């Protein structure tokens, strides 16, 4: 009888537990569903005020435009500042700091935003929650940047080799052999001195390096422009004053130092004045243009709509891949593995500190932007 009473007690307990847990699960599911619905609705609250947000957006347009112009033009005007010329150590350190800014922008800002958008509960479970589209597209974007970098360099190198006539190569080789025969030192002490006129390939190698600098500048500007427009669009469409205020300060810091990195690449590419001016202009106006575009589309643009999340999420992923590749391969690796930094451990340490400061400062900005 005692055993039966124990079994009855356990049975009653299990029934009560199943009923209670079912109610708890149903309440949690309803709460989660309600939270998802609220998250996908337009923002509302004390911070949302269109009249108060408009002056902040105008301030953002002016301040970001000015800081972007200062950042991108500072390296271009370094000809008049001896300490900031490309052959000085300070230029290398500042460029390393800017490369750290660009690297942290890709890893800490653009790529996490893409993951958040494409994993948003406002999107359908299939396919957006089943596959990491952000990482996949960032990887493809980095591979495409590598293809552009490699193929363009190879095409230019091939054209440079084709332009040299075979007769010129044979004549240079004959002259080289004759000049080498003249440079003989006889053991009796009679010294016949001859000048070696072997053809030096410095022009071709210099042109190839210049081409790489130009490819780097163009691809880097493309990646920066894409994510700058996206950031400006989000800021312009938002009426949340609590978000806009810290975002403006973070974007001014971000645009200035990112512009310094791009300006250094444009300077090394040795473009003509008109092209330098155009590249600096497009970098400076992209974020303000995105803000204006967001303000114009604020009535139709919904930040949490599926079309907006997918479009901006995919753009952010592709931009992150470009920025990460350019920062690691074409900026940091090219400088740190180059002969200048390899000759000086002291300069390497200073540059590494600059990179870490750039990454750390931009990572700190991720708290607000």
Quick tags:
single chain; mainly alpha; 11 helices; signal; Fe(2+) transport protein 1-like; membrane; transmembrane
Write a structural description:
The chain has one domain. It is built from 11 helices and 2 strands, in the order αααααββαααααα. It has helices at residues 2-40, 50-76, 89-118, 133-163, 166-182, 202-237, 241-269, 273-296, 306-336, 339-342, 345-365; strands at 184-185, 191-192. It has a two-stranded antiparallel ribbon with strand order 1-2.
The 3D shape can be described as: globular
Unreliable segments (pLDDT under 50, ≥5 consecutive)? 24-37, 164-173, 176-200
Please give the largest β-sheet: 2 strands, antiparallel
Number of structural domains: 1
Number of strands: 2
Work out the helicity level: over 70%
Mean pLDDT: 77
Q: Report the portion of residues in β strands.
A: under 5%
Order of strands side by side in the largest beta sheet? 1-2
Structural class: mainly alpha
**What Rg, in angstroms, do the CA atoms define?**
30 Å
- End-to-end distance, in Å? 69 Å
DSSP helix count?
A: 11
How would you describe the oligomerization state of the chains in this entry?
single chain
Topology as a string of helices (H) and strands (E): HHHHHEEHHHHHH
Subcellular location: Membrane
Protein name: Fe(2+) transport protein 1-like
Family: Belongs to the ZIP transporter (TC 2.A.5) family.
Transmembrane segments: 58-78, 90-111, 131-151, 215-235, 247-267, 279-297, 309-328, 349-368
